[in-house]
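Recall that a protein's primary structure is simply its ordered list of amino acids. Everything else, from secondary elements to tertiary packing, is in principle encoded there. The following example makes that idea concrete.
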Amino acid sequence: MITKKITLSVLTFLLVATLAGCSAAAPEAEAAKPVIPVKLGHVVQDTVEETYVTIGEVIPNNQFDVYLNPPGEIEAIFVKPGDFIEKDMPMIQLSNPSTKTTYNATESQLRTIRDNLSVQYNAALESYNLQKLLFDSGTISEKNLSDSHDQLLVTKRQYQDANTNYQNQISSLRSTVEDLLVQSPIMGQIASLNVKVGETAGNQLAVIIIDNTTLYVKTMVPGELKKTLTLDQDVHLSLEGIDHIVPGKISTINEIPDLSSKLFEVAVEIMEDVNIGVGDFTEVEFVTKSYKALLVPSTAIVRKGIEKYVFTYDNDQLEKVVLETGLSSGDQIEVISDELNESSTIIIRGQNDLRVDDKILIIE
């Protein structure tokens, strides 16, 4: 009996000692739990855009190809690539001796015919006037007067025809001679010069002139994208050498695709005066969808396997909110969840190893 009592007392003592030890360890463990520093942010609402990006080339408002016709030797060139020129400004002087010789010979021949007929007409006119005086005095018959008048009319018609022929042919020949001085047909900039002094040129491309008062970006798009585009639609342009997004507007949309690529050509007018050149390449960003959405910093989202979530903080309580993501806007990303709204406060830093029962320290 005595032995049993002693054993029971020892067991009771050990149990009390164990419970007392556990009770003391719990506060120590709780006190040792770390405090996690976090930074707070907010869910915001803004517009997000779904876009399609292509590559485009800068093109001018207009391009004019100048051909040399009639042929001749290039005597002088007055322009160089990059020059800005006015309409009718001289560009190239040709030399063609045979053209000038033909002009001089033909002009002399036609002028002689015209002048001879002019003399004959004046003589016929004088003869008719004399015959009329004689008829009035009764010296000649009416038939003689009529014959004189008919001769006057014939000679006059021949003179008028010769004069008209002279004017027409000389005008044509003069334009041929004048064409030896090649002038600019438009105001613009010399884009390309394809001839040299001393060359003999004939019906060949000599100069390309561009009108770059307005610049465009030409790009090609698939049929599915074309269906969503409209004239004057806003476009974002990332131009070579320009450190910001340049606005553009759709100017033309071809209704027939390119035969080889099956893509449709779209021209976008550059709506800002920027330092770019024809032939530069650029990214063209078309907005295909736009709507209001809830956004958070993309770094605020915790990704664990296929799960994505953020932590909200409200009334000193943390809550894990599982969500879906959508479109991006800069460093912000669309979040889709019934538990979030514009008034939601979220953890935007320190959230990756956070648990809902952790203690946090809010930092600025």
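Confidence is low (pLDDT under 50) at residues 1-20, 22-26. The first strand starts at residue 35 and ends at 42.
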